[in-house]
């Protein structure tokens, strides 16, 4: 009788706890605030709307037709890059004849424009784009990649998304302002590297040195990076604009093992191939730490949780309960796994010269993309710990640190958010950029670096970047021009933006 009473008491308590948890989950799901501020949308009927007329379209198409391909730092089509310089100069006569705009050349091919504002007390900002493109395999395209064919509502061509649309978008916007007699109030720069696709080590690096040698810092930097993702983020009911607030670092390590060579007829214990293989298998089977809930993805969820489908909203608004489950789910898919940890990719393995000789050395190359909560040194240390074998030597072939995480409560972030919303009317959220851009050279110039290009893309269109049939919707190119126009205008009157953002944000 007594045991029965105790059991029923335990059962009742468990049910009570479960009930409390369910109520807490429901309350949190329905009361989690909307972190999105709203702004007036940019309309075609606005007196300052910039239409994509034939002249502007032709400027852009000609830019696409100039094949500014870079395959390595020494192997760029430099003639084409100079041709693009000329085309920029011819397309924007007001920019090039204004006495408050300075055009500066770096490493012969990289351009920096300095637009001096009328109010020198406002801190300057910088817009970043680049002149070069990656190669295109013409045989795999529907159209010639450098024809700038206009078809089915798109402009096709290498560089239409990466990233001549931002280059010409910002220039058209500025030229338009000048034609209207608007001199910018706030000083800003426009940087256009010539070797972004192959490291930025000559172009962007020289631009960075220019600023640091003069002691100039920037209030914020807007570079290419993430996009307006249409149907890409699972659980979202609407497209969402993602601003990259950090980018991953990279480290390429070479692991090697050396043993005394010998004849295959008398193998003595372990071979270099055996030792190294074991080490590589350990690296592959022991992924680095899962940082879900500690990195930029947490902020992303805070900003979009209200725009998710109900099942996603229940899960994401209750990380206190479902966090470990979601962390595991993120780790299962390569694209979400890349967001939450430093990834490990075994990319090369070489050993042996002859079938009957025990190879004295074996070498393997591992490429890591480093999460912003780790450093190159951390990754090296962890790899050594996983391998736990002193016979495996490691050499750093190349490496750069992940970027710092830029804040979402800065003026620069708010200006970008506002401009994106005005053009696209979609939720905006911070995120981790898993690729890299020229902005890695600018981390000392500003703590507010945001990686976003105003491209509205579904997953098929996204594949065109560095892939085949890269194309931009004609309408999206028009949006790009107007986005930069709004960005420039908003940057000049950002003082009262803060209150619009203060209302909604809450930590998950
Ligand atoms: Zn690019």
From TrEMBL:
Protein name: Peptidase M20 dimerisation domain-containing protein
Functional description taken from the UniProt entry: Secreted enzyme that regulates the endogenous N-fatty acyl amino acid (NAAs) tissue and circulating levels by functioning as a bidirectional NAA synthase/hydrolase. It condenses free fatty acids and free amino acids to generate NAAs and bidirectionally catalyzes the reverse hydrolysis reaction. Some of these NAAs stimulate oxidative metabolism via mitochondrial uncoupling, increasing energy expenditure in a UPC1-independent manner. Thereby, this secreted protein may indirectly regulate whole body energy expenditure.
Keywords: Hydrolase, Membrane, Metal-binding, Protease, Transmembrane, Transmembrane helix, Zinc
A molecular function (GO) term: aminoacylase activity
Reactions listed under catalytic activity: (5Z,8Z,11Z,14Z)-eicosatetraenoate + L-phenylalanine = N-(5Z,8Z,11Z,14Z-eicosatetraenoyl)-L-phenylalanine + H2O; N-(9Z-octadecenoyl)-L-tyrosine + H2O = L-tyrosine + (9Z)-octadecenoate; N-(9Z-octadecenoyl)-L-asparagine + H2O = L-asparagine + (9Z)-octadecenoate; L-phenylalanine + (9Z)-octadecenoate = N-(9Z-octadecenoyl)-L-phenylalanine + H2O
Spans through the membrane: 7-27
Pathway membership: Lipid metabolism; fatty acid metabolism; Amino-acid metabolism
The organism's place on the tree of life at top rank: Eukaryota
Domain Peptidase M20 dimerisation as annotated: residue spans: 245-388
Family, as annotated: Belongs to the peptidase M20A family.
Organism: Trichoplax adhaerens (Trichoplax reptans)
InterPro entries associated with the record: Bact_exopeptidase_dim_dom, Pept_M20A, Peptidase_M20, Peptidase_M20_dimer
Pfam families linked: M20_dimer (PF07687), Peptidase_M20 (PF01546)
One GO CC term, this protein: extracellular region
Stored PANTHER family: N-FATTY-ACYL-AMINO ACID SYNTHASE/HYDROLASE PM20D1, N-FATTY-ACYL-AMINO ACID SYNTHASE_HYDROLASE PM20D1
GO biological process: adaptive thermogenesis; amide biosynthetic process; amide catabolic process; amino acid metabolic process; lipid metabolic process; proteolysis
């Amino acid at each position: 009788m007594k045991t029965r009473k105790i059991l029923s008491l335990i059962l009742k308590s468990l049910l009570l706890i479960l009930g409390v948890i369910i109520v807490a989950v429901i309350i949190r799901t329905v009361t989690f605030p909307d972190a999105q501020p709203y702004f007036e949308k940019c309309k075609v009927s606005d007196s300052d709307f910039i239409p994509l007329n034939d002249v502007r379209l032709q400027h852009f198409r000609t830019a696409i037709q100039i094949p500014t391909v870079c395959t390595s730092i020494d192997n760029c089509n430099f003639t084409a890059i100079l041709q693009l310089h000329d085309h920029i100069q011819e397309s924007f006569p007001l920019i090039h004849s204004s006495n408050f705009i300075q055009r500066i050349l770096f490493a012969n091919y990289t351009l920096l424009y300095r637009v001096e504002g009328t109010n020198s007390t406002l801190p300057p900002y910088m817009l970043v784009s680049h002149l070069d493109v990656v190669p295109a395999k013409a045989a795999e395209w529907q159209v010639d990649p450098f024809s700038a064919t206009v078809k089915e509502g798109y402009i096709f061509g290498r560089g239409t998304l990466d990233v001549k649309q931002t280059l010409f978008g910002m220039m058209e916007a500025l030229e338009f302002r000048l034609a209207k007699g608007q001199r910018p109030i706030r000083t800003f720069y426009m940087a256009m590297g010539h070797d972004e696709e192959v490291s930025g080590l000559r172009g962007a690096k020289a631009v960075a040195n220019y600023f640091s040698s003069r002691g100039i810092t920037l209030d914020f930097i807007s570079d290419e990076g993430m996009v307006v993702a249409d149907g890409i983020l699972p659980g979202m009911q609407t497209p969402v604009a993602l601003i990259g607030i950090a980018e991953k670092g990279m480290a390429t390590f070479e692991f090697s093992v050396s043993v005394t060579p010998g004849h295959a007829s008398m193998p003595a214990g372990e071979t270099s191939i055996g030792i190294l293989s074991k080490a590589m298998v350990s690296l592959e089977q022991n992924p680095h730490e899962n940082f879900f809930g500690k990195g930029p993805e947490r902020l992303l969820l805070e900003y979009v949780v209200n725009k998710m489908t109900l099942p996603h909203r229940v899960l994401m608004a209750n990380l206190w309960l479902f966090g470990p489950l979601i962390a595991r789910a993120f780790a299962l898919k390569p694209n979400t796994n890349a967001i939450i940890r430093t990834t490990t990719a075994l990319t090369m393995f070489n050993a042996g010269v002859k079938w009957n000789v025990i190879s004295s050395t074996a070498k393997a190359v591992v490429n890591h993309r480093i999460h912003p909560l780790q450093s190159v040194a951390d990754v090296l240390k962890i790899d050594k710990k996983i391998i736990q074998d002193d016979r495996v030597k490691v050499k750093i072939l190349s490496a750069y640190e992940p970027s710092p995480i830029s804040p979402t409560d800065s003026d620069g972030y708010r200006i970008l958010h506002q401009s994106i919303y005005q053009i696209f009317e979609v939720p905006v959220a911070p995120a981790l950029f898993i690729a890299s851009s020229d902005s890695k050279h600018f981390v000392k110039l500003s703590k507010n670096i945001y990686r976003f290009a105003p491209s509205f893309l579904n997953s098929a269109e996204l594949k065109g970047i560095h892939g085949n049939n890269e194309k931009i919707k004609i309408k999206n190119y028009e949006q790009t021009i107007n986005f930069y126009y709004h960005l420039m205008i908003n940057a000049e009157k950002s003082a009262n933006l803060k209150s619009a953002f203060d209302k909604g944000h809450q930590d998950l």
